[in-house]
Amino acid sequence: MPKTENFHWYVERVYGGEFHGHSLTTTLVSGQSQFQTYAIVHSIVFGKMLVLDGDTQSAALDEHIYHEALAHPVCAAGTPRRALVLGGGEGSTVRELLRVPSMQKVTMVDIDDVVVDACRTHMPEWSAGAFEDRRTELIIGDAKAYIESSAEKFDVIIGDLTEPLEDSPSYHLHTVAMYKKIRARLTPGGYFALQTSTAGPHNLALHARMTATLRAVFADVAPYTAYVPAFDTVWGFAICGDRVDARSDAAAVRAGAHAAACGGLRFYDAESHRAMFNLPRYLRDAYRSAIPLT
Hints:
Elements: E1 8-15, E2 18-32, E3 37-43, E4 47-52, E5 55-59, H1 63-76, E6 82-87, H2 92-98, E7 105-110, H3 113-122, H4 124-127, E8 136-140, H5 143-149, E9 154-160, H6 176-184, E10 186-198, H7 205-215, E11 220-228, E12 233-241, H8 249-262, H9 270-277, H10 281-289
Parallel strand pairs: 6-7, 6-9, 7-8, 9-10
Antiparallel strand pairs: 1-2, 2-3, 3-4, 4-5, 10-12, 11-12
Helix pairs in contact: 1-2, 1-8, 7-10, 8-9
């Protein structure tokens, strides 16, 4: 193992009195935008890491787990042609959506041009040409304002946003009222998918409340999880729509065919799909008593 005495450390408070430390070789860029602090650092273990307001957003070693888990289960449910990404500064969610053979247009709306530019400059391999693809429309602006003002409909909408913490710029994008507006931007039979915070047994209250909020708006909500090593916990996601068939054998078969058609995936396939939607009892119990966000 390499000695770390000459390296500097990024220490992240993950919950309560728990801290995680990452030994870093360098900081590629850091600063304060209008909306948040940001840094792109290089970890000995995880490689490049994007950090916003002191929280790890993604890491080179395993970002494919998070982004494939976010983008592909919802696309495997149908043949989407038009998709909207709310947030998604790295461009990796757009990258995954562009793998889908039926995809004709992906619109990404992110409020922070400083972070988007930093990602394009210092980690272009994560977007892998997605920003330059003719099917991509990048809008720098408020996702809430875009949802409220746009009349465009989408087959898939993905929330790749920070969590609804009170100091987060995306706090007001996770309410019953906002989810209703997002639902109104879906085509008939369309789906909304999003990340729903930590889902480990030690820190699941926000995840359960986000799930309860979604269930107050959508007829069918299918929560699922994946372990993301850089987050050092089980991470939550959800697919929402009028009817979500994600837990059946037929859904797993579709997932396998979808993964094969997309090509180049490193995490998502039929077996991963089955595992993600096979939830432990502690989560199922938490959902029953959770109170929606307001």
